[in-house]
Amino acid sequence: MSLAGKTAIITGSNSGIGLGVARELAKAGADVVLNSFTDRDEDHTLAAEIGKETGTNARYIKADMSKGDECRALIEQAGACDILVNNAGIQHVSPIDQFPTDKWDAIIAINMNSAFHTTAAAMPMMRAAGWGRIVNIASAHGLTASPFKAAYVAAKHGVVGMTKTVALETAQEPITCNAICPGYVLTPLVEAQIPNTMKEYNMSREDVVKNVLLERQPSKEFATVEQLGGTTIFLCSDAAAQITGTTISVDGGWTAL
Ligand code: NAD
């Protein structure tokens, strides 16, 4: 599968799943646009390295996905958007009655609203190009819930809902919109939850991973960023041209429980 000649924008891609997906798309030949809210030398170096490794044009564009105008500016600045991967996301864990309002607002803005703004801005470009693929990185939490993650679960269910609507609006065009729903993937977002959980449950790291994090993941293995990249590439392939408005779980059996 060659994605040569396609431009892919991956939000929140200087780390974790976004970075992994960007690498796999570049390996498949796409010119990639990496993004986050920082503007450090290392962000630009990361993109340059991917470009060098894959022989593609890889760029980094700073844009804060918590701000609608910056989401839209990212797409405009990229100048083309054949493949849009809405991936930027954050997490906060708290009981509902103690959930800080600023955390709620930030999660809804970054994890859900950003996908609205980028999709709206990318749609005219996809229509002009006569081809487009929108891949929303939702979560197993877009299909099911866990306690203490009200904002995250609400945002991810929202993304899955928006995915279906965008798919219906583009159903008769060569544009598809789908959501990938990963279970646990060992990225900085998940790594950050381990020390507190070790303290909270007085458990070793190994026990936290197996019995807390992967408790609901029947495979007892993390999904990998490469697997999510591969799933994204499949959704960009001709074989997936009639797959739209749906979710693909990459969760080791979590949602089969
Ligand atoms: P991560 O923390 O490694 O990556 C998050 C990315 O989002 C980073 O590049 C970060 O810089 C970026 N980001 C955060 N705030 C931003 C902002 N305001 N503007 C622009 N970029 C911003 O986490 P990850 O695990 O790779 O998560 C990526 C996505 O995958 C998220 O949407 C997350 O909800 C989803 N997800 C992760 C898992 C998992 O187990 N790791 C499971 C299911 C879904």
From TrEMBL:
Q: Which domain of life is it from?
A: Bacteria
Q: Which GO terms describe its molecular function?
A: 3-hydroxybutyrate dehydrogenase activity
The processes (GO biological process) annotated in the record are: monocarboxylic acid metabolic process
Family matches, as InterPro entries: 3-OHbutyrate_DH, NAD(P)-bd_dom_sf, Sc_DH/Rdtase_CS, SDR, SDR_fam
Coiled coil where?
none
Q: Pfam families, from UniProt? A: adh_short
NCBIfam families attached here? PHB_DH, PRK12429.1
- Family per UniProt? Belongs to the short-chain dehydrogenases/reductases (SDR) family.
Q: What is this protein called?
A: 3-hydroxybutyrate dehydrogenase
Which organism is this entry from? Ruegeria conchae
